[in-house]
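User: For a benchmark we're assembling, each entry needs the component sequences followed by a predicted structure for the full assembly. Here are entry 17's components. Please fill in the structure.
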Amino acid sequence: MLHPAALDPASLPTPLLGRLLPAGFPSPADDYLDGEIDLNPYLIERPASTFLMRVAGESMKGAGILDGDMVVVDRSVAPQSGHVVVGVVHGEMTLKRFHRLKNGRAALQAENPDFPEFVIGEELPAEIWGVVVGVVRKLR
Amino acid sequence: MAAAPPFALIDGNNFYVSCERVFDRRLEGAPVLVLSNNDGCAIARSQEVKALGIKMGTPAFKIRDLIAKHSIRVFSSNYTLYGDMSRRVNAVIADFSPDVEVYSIDETFLGLAGFARRDLPAMCQDLRATVARCTGIPTCVGIGPTKTLAKLGNAAAKKRPEFGGVCDLSGEGPRAAVLRAFPVEDVWGIGPATAAKLAALGIATAAGLRDMSPKQARALGTVTLERTVLELGGLSCLALEEVAPQRKGMAVTRSFGRPVTSLDELREAVAAYATRAGEKLRAHGVVAGQLAAFFHTSPHRDGPHHHGQRSTRLVPMTADTRGLIGAALRCVEAAWRGGRGCRYVKAGVLLDDLCRPEDAPPTLFAAPSPKSGALMAAVDRVNAKHGRNTLFPAAMGIERGWKLRAAHHSPRYTTRLDELPRVRA
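Assistant: Structure for entry 17:
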């Protein structure tokens, strides 16, 4: 009943070497074939607790995360100061950098001067949904 | 008697509702209701909806006013999401104990033989916290010397907040107290008929059932009831089933999105169910020897009522979609009564007499086609890669106006790149 998480059932592995059989001499590389590169284990260390999300907005531009990117979110990671996290403020998921402040409070900080920072605490309760461990972007 | 190694049952609270809440945090604290296939009946209710007195199985059309008045958030069942979340929960559980039996989409038994010396309630609290952290799903755990008691403990943990989510029935003292307060009809394996018989004998609680003599239990019910009595007393009769037993039968049944009145549409729907049944057979690596198809009108609506059903042998036994469709359509046509104003609301295909192809009896005249397996494997591969029904038999029709209604479907957040949850930045 247990399988590793396949986030995209139609994941396309990258062939490293050709599969065509030479008609003449056997390839000297045959003994060195190494399978295929699969990005899933690289991006997703803990499949059970890892989720992908789609980014909407520009507030994390400074952290290199752009509108339309996919972020890889691992819920099993304990959030630490400096982590980029998915926070929940007023029921809405928001991508921000998490900082513990000296006064025992915490902040969710945008990395774009055009956006405000939230100081979270009693007046503004927030939840950390998960820690961002990767970004996926295709250029075309 | 040596203490038997205990069992635990961990189960997701209001599981389908919890799955929706993981990805839409605005639903936390709001009344949330999930409807069965075809948006028919309530099948999962948040605590807020339970508090409004809406019962499991209530048809949606009967509570339209309540839904509007309390702004209840209504969802069609999203089994793609619930199945994936269930798989994740079980992957986390498997890290705690190698002995697990996935009992249903939201319930898993654990064998705790290796943990006998540890503080089990503390370990189960740790398990709950880990499942919640990794998947977002809240759970409750019941612990007991038998599976029946673990299940009962789980129900008690869910109903009574003072247990803090874990109810340990290992000790005689707490067990006796919980069993005295536990209604007998809620004990695992006690159906309404048995409960009525027990009520006639004045047995209303789990404690009353435990104190029944096993002999009397066998006379009253079956060997199952006798086993339940023994299990309530702490004698383990049911082992962990770590490997799912090979299925003896299989069914694909669905309600239609709107009533079907013509034979053509009924044929399309049944061909589609036969196609899905073939996929399921092949996924389990078995062939079927018997097929039945049925269709019926709604028992709750006015107008002529009809339940049509026929069955046929499959010779040779097969998992080939083409053979299954042919047999299913023959059954439908044989049971069709010419319409006569009947508005059919549901149909299904049932397969029986399943076995591995190598165990199928050889047939003299109708040999299975050697190319059938290769063709079906190719179709299954294409559909696995490009999505269900990329390749489909023409008998299924193309418009499929009869298809299930799922008007309030949430996205398949965890399995589709184009339906991922959005995070504002």
